[in-house]
UniProtKB/TrEMBL annotation:
Pfam family membership, one: OHCU_decarbox
Catalytic activity: 5-hydroxy-2-oxo-4-ureido-2,5-dihydro-1H-imidazole-5-carboxylate + H(+) = (S)-allantoin + CO2
Domain called Oxo-4-hydroxy-4-carboxy-5-ureidoimidazoline decarboxylase: residue spans: 2-158
Keywords: Decarboxylase, Lyase, Purine metabolism
Source species of the chain: Sinorhizobium medicae
KW Secreted (keyword) present: no
Pathway the protein acts in: Purine metabolism; urate degradation; (S)-allantoin from urate: step 3/3
Protein name (record): 2-oxo-4-hydroxy-4-carboxy-5-ureidoimidazoline decarboxylase
GO MF, one example: 2-oxo-4-hydroxy-4-carboxy-5-ureidoimidazoline decarboxylase activity
Entry-linked Gene3D superfamilies: Oxo-4-hydroxy-4-carboxy-5-ureidoimidazoline decarboxylase (1.10.3330.10)
GO terms of biological process kind: allantoin metabolic process; purine nucleobase metabolic process; urate catabolic process
EC number of the protein: 4.1.1.97
Coiled-coil residues: none
Top EC class of this enzyme: lyase
Upper taxonomic lineage: Bacteria, Pseudomonadati, Pseudomonadota, Alphaproteobacteria, Hyphomicrobiales
Length: 167
């Protein structure tokens, strides 16, 4: 059994730069057992129960896809690996310009970066999703981005903890 501090240290980065999610999830997670499904459920419940302002801070903590942090080499290890898996570290100048254009328009419209769980996707899939979701309403996109954050958390946890029967 992990102490609260150990739990926060281990899982505080699952929701990008937002250890408060792990802090709020600890009691639920500790009583349920340390599996990917149990920890994911506890973290997601803590995230969903948070105020819209707190959830917005989590969204804003995510980097732009193929954006300036990636170019400068300043992504978290998880974000760097995730973006590289989709080929976002190998864009042509034209593709990079398109991502930059979409990132700017998206942030201007919604106030947070475009978020998508990129595992299993290629850059064309991501661009198609980007172009489709930019037409969402603010409410639709806030919910879509929150759901993607939870998918990213699930994928990160699966690489850290034993599997169980959750999908």
């Amino acid at each position: 059994m992990l102490t609260r501090d150990d739990f926060i240290r281990r899982f505080g980065g699952i929701f990008e730069h937002s250890p408060w999610v792990a802090e709020r999830a600890y009691d639920r997670a500790a009583s349920a057992g340390l599996t990917a499904g149990n920890v994911h459920s506890a973290l997601c419940n803590a995230f969903r129960e948070a105020s819209p302002a707190d959830r917005l801070r989590v969204l804003r903590a995510h980097p732009d896809l193929a954006g300036k942090l990636a170019v400068a080499g300043e992504l978290t290890a998880d974000s760097k690996a995730e973006q590289a898996s989709a080929g976002l570290d190998r864009l042509s100048p034209e593709e990079h310009a398109r991502f930059t254009e979409l990132n700017s328009a998206y942030i201007k419209k919604f106030g947070f970066p475009f978020i998508i769980a990129v595992k299993g996707l290629v850059k064309e899939d991501i661009l198609a999703a980007f172009e489709q979701r930019i037409d969402n309403s603010a409410e639709e996109e806030f919910e879509a981005a929150c759901a993607e954050v939870e998918r990213i958390a699930r994928l990160r946890l699966r690489s850290m903890l034993p599997g169980d029967d959750y999908a």
